[in-house]
Structure formats: structure tokens, C-alpha cells
Write a structure and sequence with these properties.
With 422 residues, the chain is α+β, with helices and mostly antiparallel strands. It has four domains: 89 residues, Rossmann fold (3-Layer(aba) Sandwich), CATH 3.40.50; 68 residues, Dna Ligase, domain 1; 123 residues, D-amino Acid Aminotransferase, Chain A, domain 1, CATH 3.30.470; 95 residues, Glycinamide Ribonucleotide Synthetase, Chain A, domain 4 (Alpha-Beta Complex). It is built from 13 helices and 22 strands. The strands form six sheets. A five-stranded parallel β-sheet has the order 3-2-1-4-5, with helices on both faces. Strand 7 and strand 8 form a beta hairpin. Helix 7 runs antiparallel to helix 8. The longest helix has 21 residues. It binds adenosine monophosphate and glycine.
Length: 422
């Protein structure tokens, strides 16, 4: 089979790496890819949001299956376009991708289907949103409704901060059209976890749990980032909790979306807050998480292409996934300055010294004429396995020591929360 993976980050490198292990695959393309992906796949210079260009390429090359990494093409309707053209593609339709593309849709959907989430109110009028703040308890959370590349969530400690957030999102145009409406919701306390499930619109398979680290500094301090590391499994997600999430969140979602005429196919990402009152949904994404994917896929023993084809063809019922029982930890190495302004073009050295038991997924790298150089805020995701999380942590940080580039920084506590629980 010929496979096309769309995207250019660490998540896509992990997808290409895993898909390439399938005996079904003869050729694998990535659009646009990055410096690391180029070592294992044929990179094509088409941007992830150029859905017409991608469909033309898939037709011309006779691609058998396309896999979409990021959310933007999904929300733009790439799956509908490919299906109209008779091309197989793994992912949700535009209507189903509203679960990620519109937080107002997602919250209203959860209310309709009684899926546990924070209490909220949705607004498209600034005055009404501001008026709502007066009677609220604090902290509270203000969220731009549309896609904001992970930056659209503002936690506000008091009314002054909340008014400022509402104004910045609405009249301040901070997130452009994504801020035309917003959600104001209760602040939830607890530990976060990420749950992935693959569905064909009727049935679903749960993947193993994981946990992201969103803040830039150790001990979850400093501003939010795209994700500074992840590990799997996440012990906060016990078997009982996993069943509870399947029963109270995922099954009602799959049934509800089908009932509303927008069956959910592809991979669903559920961001969960494990509160004292049980699991609550923080957000849905309609794609693999980044960097969770880098920590989950190395543990998957089953053929990912089989699973994706089952999703596309409606054969998920009865499928079972096989997992490596070991733990996996992925530590993101960032560029100096990230998540603020950062420099690019720094030569990276030491990758050849990384041991065969570890894998380095590239997030923001590019092949220069002579060397591999940094090209993004998140540069590499160094990933290693271990008998348990503690051993995987020791392994991954030993590998990181071998890699250098100017300005590099990374968190030193990825996975520590899991150890505290043992
Ligand atoms: P989201 O993009 O909706 O997942 O939000 C990004 C991050 O903001 C989450 O991973 C949480 O850390 C935090 N967050 C979002 N909603 C809430 C909430 N209701 N209570 C507490 N933290 C939240
Ligand atoms: N790791 C969070 C996300 O992929 O949105």
C-alpha cells in the first residue's frame, strides 16, 4: 500500500515511524514532513492546509490511505473532499470535527448527551459575556470557541482578569474568527490525563492512557506550550476509571454523533480532568495528541494500518489491540525562547550517539545543505521505554545528554507524577 501522512511535527514523525513497520506498506509519503521524517519517508512540499493540493497528489500517486495529523485540514473538510473523490482517508468528517473546531458545539453536545464536563455558558455577544462574570465564582476559565492552536484557554483568578480575557478574545480580536464566540466555564481541580479512542462511527477501541505536560517549566510552572513531554501509561487512569470514561464519555459521544447525523470516525482525543467527583471532559480533539502519540505508539504492538483501515471501512467491532506492557516516556527538547519568540537554524549534534533502544521524533527540524538544524519551537521528542515509568525516565534522560544545540531546553520532571503514585 501507498500511504500519505499529512503534517510536519513530532506526532507525524511517530505516525510515519509506526506505519512504516506495517508489512502492508510499500511506500510512505509525508506532506510536508520535516528533517527527521525525511529520513524514513518521501517528503512532499504541500502544506497541511492545502486540501485541494493534497487530494490532487493522492489521486496522481494512487495513494491507498491518507492519515491526517493536525486539526486544521479536518476542520476544513479534507475527509469529505477525499471521500467525494473516492480516496480512503482516516479521520472525521467536517461535521464530526466540530467537536474540536467549535468549543460551543462541543459543550452543547456534551449537555445534550449528558457527558460530564465543567458547567459553562456560551456567548457570541461581548456585553452579555461581561455581565455573566459578575455573579461567577473564581477562578474561572474563558475559552475562545474556535481553533487557537492550543492558546485559546485563559484561566482567570478574578473578575478583572476575566473581563480582560473576554475583551481580548472578542473586541480585541486576539484569535481572529476563532474568538467570535467564547465559553466561560467553571475551573476544575484535579490531575489531567489524555485518552485516545479509534472509532468507525459505531464502535470504538480505547488506546492506552497517557499524560501531557503543558507548562514550560518543571512542576507545571510558567506559560502553556504545545506540550513539553508525555508518558504512557498514566497511573491516574486506573482500569475502573478507564471503564468509567468509556461508559460516560466515549460511548455516549459515539452514539450521540451517529444519532445527530455526524458519525465520528478516526481518532478521538479526550482531555480529562480527574476530579474528586469523577472524570470531567476538558476538551475534545479529533486527531492524535502531540506529544501523547510519541509516548503511546511505541507501546502499540498491533499493526496501526490495520486499525486505521478498520476505522475507515467500519470494521472496528471485535478488534483487540495488543500493547507492550512497558512504560514509554517522551521528553520534548525546545528552542531557546520557546514558547515565546525563538531562534531557528541552530545545528543539532549528537543524534548519531543515541542508543538503538531509544527513538528521537523530530518536531521542528530541517535538513540544511550540510547539517540538521532547528526550525521550530519544539525541536525533538526523545523517547524511550522502560520496565516502569521510573526506568523509562532514567533511560530517556541518559539519551538527552548526548544531544546538543544552541539554546536547547527541556523539562527535567517528565513522568515524575506517575512515580509519586507508586
Ligand atoms: P483545553 O485546550 O480546553 O484542553 O485547555 C487547555 C488547558 O487548560 C487544559 O489542558 C487544562 O490544563 C486547562 N483547562 C481547560 N479547561 C479547564 C477547566 N475547566 N478547569 C481547569 N483547567 C482547565
Ligand atoms: N497534547 C495536546 C494536544 O495535542 O492538543
Amino acid at each position: 500500500m501507498k500511504i500519505l501522512v499529512i503534517g510536519s511535527g513530532g506526532r507525524e514523525h511517530a505516525l510515519v515511524w509506526k506505519i512504516k513497520q506495517s508489512p502492508r506498506v510499500s511506500r510512505i509519503f509525508c506532506a510536508p514532513g520535516n528533517g527527521g521524517i525525511a529520513e524514513i519517508a518521501e517528503c512532499v512540499d504541500i502544506k497541511a492546509d492545502d486540501i485541494l493540493g493534497l487530494a490532487d497528489f493522492a489521486q496522481a500517486q494512487g495513494i491507498d490511505l491518507t492519515v491526517v495529523g493536525p486539526e486544521v485540514p479536518l476542520v476544513a473538510g479534507i475527509v469529505d473532499l477525499f471521500e467525494e473523490e473516492g480516496l480512503k482517508i482516516f479521520g472525521p468528517s467536517q461535521a464530526a470535527a466540530r467537536l474540536e473546531g467549535s468549543k460551543v458545539f462541543a459543550k452543547n453536545f456534551m449537555k445534550r448527551w449528558e457527558i460530564p464536563t465543567a458547567r459553562y455558558a456560551a456567548f457570541s455577544d461581548e456585553k452579555a459575556a461581561l455581565a455573566h462574570l459578575a455573579g461567577h465564582t473564581y477562578p474561572l476559565v474563558v475559552k475562545a470557541a474556535g481553533l487557537a492552536a492550543g492558546k485559546g484557554v485563559i484561566i482567570c483568578r478574578n473578575q478583572v482578569e476575566a473581563e480582560d480575557a473576554v475583551r481580548r478574545i472578542m473586541s480585541g480580536n486576539m484569535f481572529k474568527d476563532a474568538g467570535k464566540s467564547l465559553v466561560i466555564e467553571d475551573f476544575l481541580e484535579g490531575e489531567e490525563a489524555s485518552i485516545l479512542a479509534i472509532s468507525d462511527g459505531k464502535d470504538f477501541l480505547l488506546l492506552e492512557s497517557s499524560q501531557d505536560h503543558k507548562r514550560i517549566f518543571d512542576n507545571d510552572e510558567g506559560p502553556n506550550t504545545g506540550g513539553m513531554g508525555a508518558y504512557s501509561p498514566a497511573p491516574v487512569v486506573t482500569d475502573a476509571l478507564s471503564r468509567q470514561i468509556a461508559d460516560t464519555v466515549i460511548r455516549p459521544l459515539i452514539e450521540g454523533m451517529a444519532d445527530e447525523g455526524a458519525p465520528f470516525k478516526g481518532v478521538l482525543y479526550v482531555g480529562i480532568m480527574v476530579t474528586q467527583d469523577g472524570p470531567r471532559v476538558l476538551e475534545f480533539n479529533t486527531r492524535f495528541g502531540d506529544p501523547e502519540t510519541q509516548a503511546v505508539l511505541p507501546r502499540l504492538k498491533s499493526d496501526l494500518v490495520d486499525v486505521m483501515l478498520a476505522s475507515v471501512d467500519g470494521r472496528v467491532a471485535g478488534m483487540v489491540l495488543e500493547w507492550d506492557p512497558r512504560a514509554c516516556v517522551c521528553v520534548v527538547m525546545a528552542a531557546g525562547g520557546y514558547p515565546g519568540d525563538y531562534a531557528v537554524g541552530a545545528p543539532i549534534s549528537g543524534l548519531d550517539k543515541v542508543s538503538a533502544g531509544a527513538v528521537v521524533f523530530h518536531a521542528g527540524t530541517r535538513k540544511d545543505t550540510t547539517a540538521l538544524v532547528t526550525s521550530g519551537g519544539r525541536v525533538l521528542g526523545v523517547t524511550a521505554m522502560g520496565e516502569d515509568v521510573a526506568k523509562a525516565i532514567v533511560h530517556v534522560y541518559a539519551e538527552i545528554k548526548k544531544i546538543t544545540y544552541e539554546g536547547m531546553h527541556f523539562r527535567r520532571d517528565i513522568g515524575r507524577k506517575a512515580i509519586g503514585r507508586h
